[in-house]
Amino acid sequence: MQATAPKTATATAADLVARARARDEAAIRAIMQANNRRLYRLARGILRNDSEAEDVVQETYVLAFTHLDSFNGDSSLSTWLSRIAINEALGRLRRERPGVELSSLPPGALEAQIIQFPLAAPLDPEKTMAQREIQHVVEHAIDDLPEPFRLVFITRVLEGMNVEETAEILGLKPETVKTRLHRARTMLRNNVEKKIGPVVMEAFPFAGRRCERLTDTVLKQLGIPK
After folding, report:
1. CA torsion angle for 52, 145, 171, 85 (degrees, to 10)?
2. What separation in angstroms does the CA of 91 have from each of 15, 57, 83, 117, 203?
3. What is the pLDDT of residues 49-86, one digit of tens each?
């Protein structure tokens, strides 16, 4: 008997999409939990507002799962979802500022604001006091970056996407991604880069109760019982 080849990541992703099209709850939850943080960070990078970013993530999933048949696999599911989230976030921004475009916002066009995430519940392992203090510095500094550089920094550094994927999601040339990342790092270096270290991946968290609550809300909107 011929041995069965191990399931690849691509096959697993395709299987999840097929099951999600059939409204399989476990598949939808798996897709959301794998992408929640990335989509939230991207939306948050554009809107710089916690609740609006969370709303955008929710709208992204409802739109995506309602029109999952339009996903043809030309790009990864994560990239497809990221584009939807960016478009939804930009749509909100344009309603407030007609004509705004992600690639053309001038440096300093938006006022920086300190991000105030809800404090974790007692005994919640997601955050420690030290992490919160450093995150506050990191998040404030990132918020202070001009929009074009902020999105590149979030995708490349916080999310760890490669140059090509970042360019594809943001609609930029790879050379532009590299240039903007270099400038973003330069802007951050003096006041925060020494403090980033291993906790940078903890910035802009979207896990635990928030992740679960949003997942449940989307499933309810899709008419899928828990």
Report:
1. -10
2. 31, 13, 12, 23, 25
3. 888 999 999 999 999 999 999 998 888 999 999 999 99
